[in-house]
Amino acid sequence: MDTTTALFYVFSAVMLFAAFRVITARSPVYAALYLVLAFFSAACVWILLRAEFLAIALVLVYVGAVMVLFLFVVMMLDVDTGSLRAGFWKHFPVAALVGVVIALEMAAVLYPGFHVTDAPTASAAALQLGNTKLLGIEVYTKYLYPLQIAAVLLLVAIIAAISLTLRERKDSRHLSPSEQIKAKKADRLRVVSMKPETGTVDSASAAPPPLGDRR
Q: 3-class SS at 214?
């Protein structure tokens, strides 16, 4: 066993342990931290497989952005974990059965792809381009339509999440752009014509009273 194989087994074991702790940790903060550890382990495995771009993308996108957002949301919201875990053991047999069925289906689909074969040798031109440029060429030429379909699905998911979480609060003040556009000058300003007042004012009556006489 060489060093690369040993490191692969070590990072894989750490990743499986972290993934198991994600679903078994009682605290949501600990679960998110274990998920960060699982992402780091997966990035190390990808580096061993010479997929540096995927490893960097996993660390920057998921660990640097998504998991930080998860931690902020979990720590800012007062989540009652006790009520969420109510009835866990009651539904555990059905959930375990469904999980086993899903695991068997995934194993049946993915097992044929684990047969070890000789890796195709890359050409000199491909080695000069690098795996990042080769990945971009494959994605934007051969897999362009699946990429566009994935982008549309993500857009639909974003719109659905906004529409589901958007609630109109009664105590919030908001402006209606349509009502602002319909407003006219006569509705905002009214000019009133007033006659000027004429006459003299008695200076003695208009002067303020002395300080001693004020009540």
A: coil
**Residue 76 and residue 6 share a domain:** yes
pTM over 0.90: no
Q: Are 56 and 66 in contact (CB under 8 A)?
A: no
Report which residue type is found at 98. Answer: V
- Position 213 in a domain: no
Q: Would residue 54 count as lying in a domain?
A: yes
pLDDT per residue over 15-61, tens digit each? Answer: 999 999 988 888 888 888 899 999 999 999 988 888 888 888 888 88
Q: Count the Cβ atoms, other than its own, within 10 Å of residue 47.
A: 15
What gap in Å lies between CA 41 and CA 12, rounded to an integer?
7
Of 64, 68, 45, 70, which Cα lies nearest the Cα of 55? Answer: 45
